[in-house]
Amino acid sequence: MTKIAVAGKGGSGKTTIAGLLARLVAEEGRDVLTVDADENPNLGISLGLGVEGTYGLIGAREALLPDGPALAVSMEEVVERFATPAGERLRVVQVRKFDQFRPG
Amino acid sequence: MRVVLLGKGGSGKSTLAGLLCAEIGARHGRVVAFDADTVPGLGPVLGMPVTDDWFLAGTAEREGGGWRLEGTPAEIVQRRARRAPGGVRFLQIGNADATLGDFELHRESYLDRWSGTMAFNTVCRVFDDEDGWVVVDLQGGTLNVAGGMVGTTGVGLVVVEPFAKSVLTARRFAGMAGWPPGVRLAGVASKVTSPADEAYVREALDGLDIPLWGSVPLDPAVRQAERAGQPVVGIDDSSPARRAVAALVDRLEEAGGPARPVPSASGDRA
């Protein structure tokens, strides 16, 4: 398995590059799992899910750990439960989603 | 009047913050600018040297279950803000050391340290310059907003580039539950290169019930200043971006102007 991390300043093009890379590798016939670990996740846009499709993705971490840091399931199960198809051989897991106020 | 810059990373929040400070400073001679990003970047935009300093270090001590501040938020701002050109008082309040990482995993140490997050919540969130303007430059995305860093009053200016990813971030702000009742959301189109760009942003914001209050063109003067290491606040006030921001400040002044009272019902000032 090959893992590729894409890093850089906000707005520099990380997500666009990641989406293109994923699509190209998938077109070569390999299965690709993309992980959007940005706290403001946009990768779905680059993978063609659109604004509403990306907005609707669930944050796997929030869904799994509502009350604290106790991961009860395996990574495989996380992927199984939360990966969304984004084309041939291509899936996306969104790690986090901050969509409500939580003061304190 | 508080103006909080919101938007996707790279959408132009800091640049717009600098242009707003330039315009407000020129009009009123005074504006307080907070850089709340955990990776601070507003200083150079305002003509200040790059520094990793956290300006609120040592302004509070642990006392019982809370924090004892060395003065009122207004006194702390007065003491700790550094004078930038054009009447700008600059305060760098984000600090990566204390705010990066996983809050849930390190909750105890976060709550026990005088950190950027704590300082924001006890000083900056409740600070409003009764006589003037406060411009807050937040980290990109919704994380800081979800933590309450938008404050309790003023205008949340959502900076939107003519791109779907930028619109998605605006969509998240529009969809967040629990906005403080004293905060109004308004949009600004950023890096606009054509009427079609502006129309794209306007239509997207219309769908989110966020009014478009300004449209700032992609301005070569801003790019040149940035590349040359010159502050955005220093660009010519006849440049297209500065003129667009002047119109935006007109709109902000119409919306409430300075000295908008903090609603006492919010409880955050107690």
Detail the poorly predicted runs of chain A: none
Number of DSSP helical runs of chain B: 11
Could you say which overall geometry of chain A the principal axes of the C-alpha atoms support?
globular
Strand order of the largest sheet of chain A: 1-3-2
Helix content of chain A: 25-40%
Strand order of the biggest β-sheet of chain B:
5-6-2-7-1-8-9-10
Q: Structurally, how many domains make up the residues of chain A?
A: 1
Helix content of chain B: 25-40%
Distance between the termini of chain A: 41 Å
Mean pLDDT of chain A: 88
Structural class of chain B: alpha/beta
Summarize this structure as a short list of keywords or feature phrases.
heterodimer, A: 104 residues, alpha+beta, three-stranded mixed sheet, 5 helices, B: 270 residues, alpha/beta, 11 helices
Q: How does this structure look, described?
A:
- The complex is a heterodimer of chains A (104) and B (270).
- Chain A has five helices and three strands, in the order H-E-H-H-H-H-E-E.
- Chain A is of the alpha+beta class.
- Chain A has one domain.
- Chain A has a three-stranded mixed sheet, covered by helices on one side.
- The radius of gyration of chain A is 14 Å and the shape is globular.
- The mean pLDDT of chain A is 88.
- Chain B has 270 residues and is an alpha/beta fold.
- Chain B has a domain at 12-155 and 220-257.
- Chain B has eleven helices and ten strands.
- Chain B has helices spanning 13-28, 42-45, 73-80, 96-99, 107-111, 116-124, 143-146, 164-175, 195-207, 220-227, 240-255; strands at residues 2-7, 31-35, 60-63, 66-69, 82-84, 88-92, 133-137, 153-160, 182-192, 212-217.
- In chain B, the strands form two sheets. In chain B, strands 5-6-2-7-1-8-9-10 form an eight-stranded mixed sheet, with helices on both faces. Chain B has a two-stranded antiparallel ribbon with strand order 3-4.
- In chain B, helix 1 (13-28) crosses helix 11 (240-255).
- The longest helix of chain B is centred in the N-terminal third of the chain and has 16 residues, at 13-28.
- The radius of gyration of chain B is 18 Å and the shape is globular.
- The two termini of chain B are 20 Å apart.
- Classes of the chains: A alpha+beta (104), B alpha/beta (270).
- Chain A binds chain B through residues 9-12, 15, 38-40, 42, 45-46, 50-52, 54-55, 65, 68-69, 98-104, and chain B through 8-11, 102, 104-105, 121, 140-143, 145-148, 164-165, 167-169, 171-172, 175-179.
